[in-house]
Amino acid sequence: MPTLVESPPKPYSLAEYLALQEKSEKKNEYLDGVIVPMTGGSIEHNHIAGNIFAWLKMG
């Protein structure tokens, strides 16, 4: 029985990524031609990051 093999995703050019990112509601990263959704960025995430930064600056 033959098996299906997924082909790697088509690499995007930087120009294609920038054009898509302008229209996107979510932030993405561009890594070696691959568009990867970014994580984080919530209010809770910002509070935690701010607390860690303040703790490091005081210590």
User: So what's the overall shape?
Assistant: elongated
Radius of gyration: 18 Å
Number of helices: 2
Low-confidence stretches: none
- Percentage of residues in strands: 5-15%
The portion of residues assigned to helices is 40-55%
End-to-end Cα distance = 63 Å
Order of SSEs: HEEH
Q: Count up the domains.
A: 1
Classify the secondary structure makeup into a structural class. alpha+beta
The neighbouring-strand order within the major sheet is 1-2
Mean pLDDT: 90
The description of the largest β-sheet is:
2 strands, antiparallel
How many distinct beta strands?
Answer: 2
Domain Putative restriction endonuclease: 15-56
Keywords: Endonuclease, Hydrolase, Nuclease
GO molecular function, one term: endonuclease activity
Protein name: Uma2 family endonuclease
How would you describe this structure in keywords?
single chain; 59 residues; alpha+beta; two-stranded antiparallel ribbon; 2 helices; 2 strands; 44% helix
Descriptive report:
This protein has 59 residues and is of the alpha+beta class. The chain has one domain (14-58). The chain has helices at residues 14-23, 43-58, and strands at 28-31, 34-37. Strands 1-2 form a two-stranded antiparallel sheet. The N and C termini lie far apart (63 Å).
